[in-house]
Backbone:
């Protein structure tokens, strides 16, 4: 599969969601219930001996009225910050390491596709039942997960929050995007009212996980579910093929950057412990290996590897710029 083919496939699959961005406001797994089952990493991924990894192809304006306060609030969240050719959020400026421009948004949408492929087309694994009433997505990014969820569960009133107002305005009627900092005290009323709270890829976004998880727990109805999905920033290989490579250095350097920034990038590794300590019960951990590149024998793994390699290639620059200048 060539890079062009992967790009086209991802594009067509997420197109219906992404094209809503044209109407954007701004112009631009672990899971736990409130028994244990521990998922093990899948067995060694078999290498496709016929694939040479030398394939060079992979080488509303938001202003509801014209009151001054609304306008100033609106400009406060949309006066994006530009640094080294990339665009960053302005609300809580500097709180998040990633850009929020078109390139970054495409990367988030690509990973959304990777996550859903990995889950066999599902958006989540938590056993939430067929008619959730109130659902929260933390750090929603482009909002693509929340839009898919709201489409699939019309019973649910879905709230999706982020520091950046980059989500489309043409969205399902049961979905509301809010610019909000999940790390501040939450203002949802009544607190224990959510059937499902979801977070994905908020690595390097949270300084105090015990505090965040305490708020999540407090806002779940009794018996409700929280799902947190993360990607490890540390690439590993079953053989020695990574040794001495730049990719091998990336993981430890990213972890070090998180320590300097005060927001950990090792949450994929640590979240199960944080959840248990916060008081969650029925905690389950599921781990899924993602190859980088098309070396796997299994066709599904090969496909996932193709997406993942594209994701790394297109995400590295945005992911690294701020991280490595802390
Ligand atoms: C890597 S992106 C993941 C986006 C989305 N969850 C997904 O899986 O596609 C992380 C998102 O978290 C948002 N974020 C970072 N810190 C945040 C905070 N304190 N409160 C709310 N959102 C935050 C960022 O703006 C960014 O959109």
Residues:
């Amino acid at each position: 599969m060539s890079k062009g083919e992967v790009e086209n496939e991802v594009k067509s699959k997420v197109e219906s969601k992404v094209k809503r961005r044209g109407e954007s406001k701004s112009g631009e797994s672990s899971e736990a219930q409130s028994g244990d089952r521990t998922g093990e990493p899948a067995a060694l991924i078999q290498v496709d001996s016929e694939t040479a990894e030398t394939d060079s192809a992979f080488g509303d304006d938001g202003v509801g009225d014209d009151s001054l306060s609304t306008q100033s609030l609106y400009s406060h969240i949309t006066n994006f910050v530009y640094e080294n050719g990339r665009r960053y959020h302005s609300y809580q400026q500097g709180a998040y390491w990633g850009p929020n421009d078109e390139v970054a948004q495409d990367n988030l949408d690509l990973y959304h596709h990777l996550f859903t492929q990995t889950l066999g087309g599902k958006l989540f694994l938590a056993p939430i039942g067929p008619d959730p009433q109130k659902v929260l997505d933390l750090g929603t990014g482009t909002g693509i997960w929340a839009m898919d969820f709201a489409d699939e569960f019309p019973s649910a009133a879905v709230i999706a929050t982020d520091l950046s107002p980059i989500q489309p305005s043409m969205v399902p009627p049961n979905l509301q995007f809010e610019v909000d900092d999940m790390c501040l005290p939450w203002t949802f009323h009544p607190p224990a009212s959510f059937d499902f709270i979801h977070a994905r890829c908020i690595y390097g976004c949270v300084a105090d996980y015990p505090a965040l998880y305490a708020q999540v727990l407090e806002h779940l109805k009794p018996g409700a579910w929280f799902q947190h999905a993360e990607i490890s920033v540390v690439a590993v290989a079953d053989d020695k093929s990574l040794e001495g490579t730049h990719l091998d250095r990336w993981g430890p350097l990213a972890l070090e950057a998180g320590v300097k920034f005060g927001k950990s990038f090792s949450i994929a590794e640590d979240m199960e412990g944080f959840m248990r300590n916060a008081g969650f019960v029925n905690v389950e951990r599921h781990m899924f290996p993602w190859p980088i590149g098309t070396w796997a024998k299994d066709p599904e793994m090969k496909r996932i590897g193709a997406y993942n390699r594209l994701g790394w290639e297109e995400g590295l620059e945005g992911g690294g710029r701020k991280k490595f200048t802390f």
About this structure: Residues 3-325 form a domain with the Rossmann fold fold (CATH 3.40.50.150). The pocket of S-adenosylmethionine is lined by residues 89, 95-96, 98, 108, 112, 139-141, 145, 161-164, 181-183, 200-202, 205 (CB under 6 Å).
